[in-house]
Fold this protein.
Amino acid sequence: MKCFFSFKDKFKAKRGSRSAPELQDQSKSDSSAIKRTSKSLSSLPSPRTIPEMYKEKEQNLRVFTYEELREATSGFHRLLKIGEGGFGSVYKGKIRPPDGEGDPTVVAIKKLNTKGMQGHKQWLAEVQFLGVVSHPNLVKLLGYCSIDGERGMQRLLVYEFMPNKSLEDHLFNRALSSLPWKTRLEVLHGSAQGLAYLHGELEVQVIYRDFKSSNVLLDEDFKAKLSDFGLAREGPQGDRTHVSTAVVGTYGYAAPEYVETGHLTIQSDIWSFGVVLYEMLTGRRVLERNRPTMEQKLLEWVKQFPTDSSRFSMIIDPRLRNQYSLAAARKVAKLADRCLNKNAKDRPTMSQVVESLVEAIRVSETTSGNRSSESSGSKISHRRSK
């Protein structure tokens, strides 16, 4: 991967522009000052890439043997399988401390499908990104296993265990209790904080590229943590406006400009966030083919119920049983509409999204008639989930 635009190159470009005739008779002292500045700037370290940053932190990850992880999952027993996706199966397991002393730790172990090199590339991307990032709203990678043997390529990842499944599970799986209104807001707020960290709080800008409700995991306290970094990419560097890449991801969540051109930016993540905001409000998936034609595509359906209209409340998830703040719901819908702006440059930043959700939570807590019922609903729903 290429490095970020360097200060040294930037300075050289400026010096080239100063070769005009009217600047060639500068004094000697001015010339010396330029040389000193050039030396100072060229000595500054160039921003590092994710692989370079990973080299400093790779020792923080534990390297497991295949036998350890097979034992941890009782031979990858089907009854311990807790998830399955395009890149592999996830099992619940127990690993022993490195020194062999103390109680075992419950973990989630992802065993990638390794029929092609694409699986390895995504495995490597996840190891490097999660080996570098550190934030309360990002799932923690504990270690990995990488073996090339007679039985082929084995690539596994070991994460902290998230006992309350995913946001998708609680929104759409009728066998689980529905998340109460306040918890939904807090989950989206935590998710936004995780994305804001990726977009602007690291040496490099990270585009998550796969934000969806199934990738928002919930810990024992229902705190949101983003998972699955196999599709993450470093953002555009220097004066570039985007990253050109093959279009990958999940249908319905990808921004239209990315699908049409392959140009990837952090605004692509913001579009995806807007989709999930509407999933949270409505309790509906982005695409449901078993519904009437006019209701199958979520983003088309909600347009029939404008945010400021009296019909707006008709889109709210019926599983909330009216235990929500209508004023806060309108704010969330308006935020979703901003995230889903067709013009990517007019979408809010994730920092602005975080601020808007903080305001929605404040409005929800102060809206009369809702606070006590939401609070009791939260306690009941959490007890059932556990």
